[in-house]
């Protein structure tokens, strides 16, 4: 028997079409995870489900499918002792009025990251030790989590949402030449470190004939308005913020106007946008501190560090990837997120969760 549950009060679902998904209060969910007919509990993003860990019966295995926000603060804060924001972004956030949530994110250090990313839910090694299988977005993040937290010893298996064929391609535009515009960041959140990217573009890049496309259609409203104001002030009509929700196909069509992608996250983030653009043949520039940068580099992907713009003057002229370089990147993405591979991983995940439970009996 399978059951799909969203924790919390009943509310309209805008993007989930299945009628098999229901809502449960945390107390009812605690009763559910003790029922014998269920062989495992699979948690998608840990925050709201964290209180359940104490109530899941010992005969069930717990699978944590990590999203990023739910494990960076809890397990990987040591990797970012100065926080997830660069200096200019920190200075901007410090001006936020009345100390809203975003203002609390500015403090540097481990405790601040835990508050910012881990929210206010308490946890302990004993509680997280209840997790039997942990699948973060990247395998490198699993190794980082175990190295930084010796008490954390779940089994690892590779699993990701979606597939390249169903989520990253769009009929009608793929295969056509990309435009010369520049995609900057993926959301209205300070983890993007937009201001530092804007400075790179202003100081080091020839922007003649290019627009700067900046997705800001979700995130913090105060931060969004600040980025829009600063962006227009620096780049005028070349600055194009995206502030309204767009259907996936329309969004991917718009991305086709961008031949270059600038991402300045310190943690793994914006993976979907990066994969889409690599499949399109765009050139991707990232902060080399990001685990995603290291992961892609280890896979053989053709990407570039943002630090190159200050260290290598010749980078100021944005040159597209060669056809052979584009082919390398397509192979990397399809080789990890291809439909057949993803299906095999889902089967393995289910078998692993259930076989482990049976083996313990």
From TrEMBL:
Annotated coiled-coil segments of the chain: none
Keyword Oxidoreductase: no
Top-rank EC class of the record's enzyme: transferase
Key words, A-Z: Cell inner membrane, Cell membrane, Glycosyltransferase, Membrane, Transferase
GO biological process, one term: enterobacterial common antigen biosynthetic process
GO terms of molecular function: 4-acetamido-4,6-dideoxy-D-galactose transferase activity; fucosyltransferase activity
Keyword Cytoplasm: no
Pfam families in UniProt: Glyco_transf_56 (PF07429)
Enzyme Commission number(s) from the entry: 2.4.1.325
The name this protein goes by in its record: dTDP-N-acetylfucosamine:lipid II N-acetylfucosaminyltransferase
Organism: Methylococcus capsulatus
